[in-house]
What does this fold into?
Amino acid sequence: MAPVAFSGTIPSKRKADLQTIALALHISDSGTRDELQARIKRHLEQHQSKYEDDPTFSGLYGKKKKSVQPALGRFVPGSPEDSEERSPQVTRSARRVVPVGSRETIPVGPREITPVDDMRNVSMMLKHLPISPESLARLQISVQKAYSIHLVTTRAVLSDSTNIWFLTALLELLYVLYMVIPWQIAELASGSRSQFYLAIPYPPAQTFLQLSFWTVLFHWSVPTILIPLVFGLLVSFHPANSTSVRIPRVLALDPLSASIARLAAHVVYPFQTLDASLQGVDVIGQRWRLLTASVVVAFAFAEAIFSAPSAFAESRTRLRAGTPRRTIAPEDTLVSVTAES
It folds into this structure.
């Protein structure tokens, strides 16, 4: 009797055929159809080198032998009808098993591989980053340089007592306007259901026609701006303005004299008497007026104490030399005075 040669796909076999194959493989033939399929597949995969060249079982492996594909990808349903009865362990290979001796070409479907183009793009992105370390370092240096420049500029502006005097007066003026003017709101709606609108405050024109508004501004400006300006222009103890200097340097405004006059004016100005005739004329209040004026005086004194030695040395040098005034840097003052001594 000629030996039996098995061929075809495992999922297409009936249970009786699967039991026959199991007995030929010397394994158990009990269980359901799915259990037999899984048991036969697992046995054939584990002993591939033994049965792949055996004419009895080689038809179960297909025409192509000694494939380098993984063992889990050999048995796939051969027809759509078999896909309903296949085991969950069936792999995703696109090959199908054909009988022994058949010359039918085995179609090979697409396999799951890594896209070469995508990997090349990823490698190119890693090589050419959006910001290189050198560019990041240059950006950090430029940011630090810009920060230093802005810090020095802001510090120079706020370290001038004249600027401090004007800034405090401006802040007080804004506060007075905010409290005195009965602001109204103009709403600009978009007209959509989102109810988006823009609220713009504006002063009513009737406010600027009232005498009380201008009276409040006048009484605020007298001790805060007018009196300090007069004393700051006429009174100055700065060495550069000394009459003994051949060519004195005329300062537009002495911030120390203006600050002292401002503090004194806020102390003696009769806001309480004026409040009897015009209630609310002292909008800021005595406490905050004196505090602001005292802070301005303190900054003016600090600036005067810091610049006094260099200014005195400059005026003394020009007086001794009898030459027109020239600008001397603060760091060069002590050197020039020591050389002359």
Q: What stands out?
A: The beta strands are 184-189, 197-202. The first helix runs from residue 15 to 24.
